[in-house]
Write a structure and sequence with these properties.
Elements lengths: L4 E7 L2 E3 L3 E10 L5 E11 L1 E6 L5 E2 L4 E10 L8 E10 L2 E12 L3 E8 L8 E2 L2 E11 L5 E9 L4 E9 L2 E12 L6 E9 L3 E10 L3 E3 L7 E3 L3 E4 L9 E4 L11 E6 L2 E2 L2 E12 L7 E8 L5 E8 L10 E10 L7 E9 L8 E12 L20 E5 L6 E7 L4 E7 L5 E5 L7 E5 L6 E9 L2 E9 L2
Parallel strand pairs: 2-9, 11-17
Antiparallel strand pairs: 1-3, 3-7, 4-6, 4-8, 5-7, 8-9, 10-12, 12-15, 13-14, 13-16, 16-17, 18-29, 19-22, 20-21, 21-29, 22-28, 23-28, 24-27, 24-29, 25-26, 25-28, 30-31, 31-34, 32-33, 32-35, 35-36
Length: 462
């Protein structure tokens, strides 16, 4: 015959990190003999014992009883960690080491989204602007965080601390104003978060100047030489455009006039686009050269010449507003200038060239965030368009490659008129464009996703 001490259960079974609890253990003498009882509790890891309660001196067969100890859980415990210990029990001449583990409940915190009140380019913030900042913080455990949240983006002097209670679920926390200095290059910067002394997180914010854009309304972004000037004669948007002409309303003979942009520091996969209308002579060498000047190397990249002398791809010597697009074959962070050069020979002249809505776009670099953090605010560029055959004579296949939901496809003629539009169904990414009564010429296919717009040219040859 001998006694046998067994543990039925204990309560509470879970505790929160850093808190103090009275843990009660419910035991029984499951053996077949009585005996004097003593116990000595021990915490092996995860906490400390503050107080040991009393216990019965003697146990008889079948007795049920309880003992209590006061435990403080370590404040470094994470969600799911165990406070490990044992009750070293003695009954009669027999020892009964009874192990136990108390599970810790702790907040599990992620910065899910950051909101910035103000102007954006896509999902990126803009240089030289101030934004009231808010963090949407998710707590996926059953434990409430009640403490101080500190945050900093040291490079831009954005830092502070707020007291917050984060109950299970999501909570929006206001962080104050985030001021971004002047700059041009697309960058991503981390905002570091600390939740008390236990948890930390990082959220990446994309910042860029915004796609370079000049609608000729102010004339702030281009310098002119010769006969280039702002005019109200024609425009695609607003009331102004850029024009190369003298007081007679025509460009002069022997022109060599320049329209040159301010410095632009481009990002990845940069493209130049603008709207143009022109009227030039049917012979000679009057026309517009489109150039990119790479300032770091001093090289000038000649993208195109549009003018008389067999260089009129739109098959005419006069046209209304048309959109033109060019890839800029230079790496990210290259400082460039756009340089339009209008030249003419010594013979007849005409009204010339009008330019409007000049834009340089690029794809910002995608940067992975730290573990457990949602994606950064800036997303990849919207889509890539593949068209084949190109040129085509009756039907072409259009494929849209994008990680984002496709919201629409529009097809424009050289005058900017919509000739076809499509609303995709479900996950549709491919369509056949079967032209009917359209004339030969250049067309622009523009795909729009939830993250922006991408365009490609296609040529119809009957």
């Amino acid at each position: 015959d001998r006694p046998y001490i067994c543990l039925d259960y204990f309560t509470p079974e879970t505790v929160r990190a850093g808190n103090t609890y009275n843990i009660t253990f419910y035991l029984r003498n499951c053996g077949t003999a009585d005996g004097a009882f003593e116990y000595s509790p021990e915490i092996i890891s995860g906490g400390t014992i503050d107080y040991i309660g009393t216990a019965p001196d003697t146990l008889t067969v079948g007795d049920t009883f309880s003992v209590s100890i006061q435990i403080t859980a370590d404040d470094t415990l994470k969600n799911g960690d165990l406070i490990r210990g044992k009750l070293d029990c003695t009954c009669g001449d027999f020892e009964f080491p009874i192990p136990f583990g108390i599970r810790t409940i702790a907040p599990v915190i992620d910065v899910v989204v950051m909101y910035f009140e103000g102007d954006y380019s896509g999902n990126a913030l803009l240089w030289d602007d101030t934004y009231p900042a808010h963090a949407l913080i998710q707590n996926t455990s059953d434990a409430t965080f009640d403490g101080t949240i500190s945050f900093d983006c040291a490079e831009y002097g954005f830092s502070g601390a707020v007291d917050a209670v984060l109950i299970p679920g999501t909570t929006s926390v206001s962080l104050g104003e985030f001021t971004i200095p002047e700059g041009t290059s697309p960058v991503t910067k981390p905002i570091n978060f600390h939740f008390g002394s236990l948890y930390q997180d990082t959220f990446w914010v994309s910042i860029l100047r915004g796609d370079f854009f000049d609608d000729a309304e102010t004339g702030d972004y281009f310098s002119t030489s010769g006969n280039w000037r702002r005019t109200t004669d024609y425009s695609i948007s607003g009331i102004h455009s850029y024009r190369c002409a003298d007081a007679s309303g025509n460009y002069p003979n022997n022109a060599n006039d320049w329209l040159v942009s301010d410095t632009i520091i481009i990002g990845e996969d940069a493209t130049l686009s603008f709207w143009m209308r022109y009227e030039v002579t049917t012979y000679g060498s009057d026309g517009l050269h489109t150039n990119i000047i790479a300032l770091d190397s001093g090289d000038t990249l000649h993208l195109d010449y549009v003018g008389s002398g067999g260089a009129l791809p739109l098959l005419g010597f006069e046209t209304g507003w048309t959109i033109w697009e060019y890839d800029i074959p230079l790496p990210p962070q290259t400082p460039i200038k756009i340089a339009f050069n209008f030249t003419s020979d010594g013979e007849d002249n005409a009204p010339g060239v009008f330019l409007d809505d000049i834009q340089v776009s690029w794809k910002p670099t995608v940067v992975d965030t730290s573990a457990g953090i949602s994606q950064q605010t800036r997303k990849p560029v919207s889509a890539d368009i593949e068209i084949y055959p190109n040129p085509f004579n009756s039907t072409c296949k259009i494929e849209i490659n994008s990680d984002f939901d496709l919201t629409g496809i529009k097809i424009y003629d050289i005058y900017g008129r919509i000739v076809n539009s499509y609303n995709p169904v479900g996950n549709q990414r491919t369509l056949l464009w079967d032209v009917e009564n359209l004339p030969s010429g250049l067309y622009l296919i523009r795909a729009t996703t939830e993250n922006g717009t991408t365009s490609r040219k296609v040529i119809l040859e009957r």
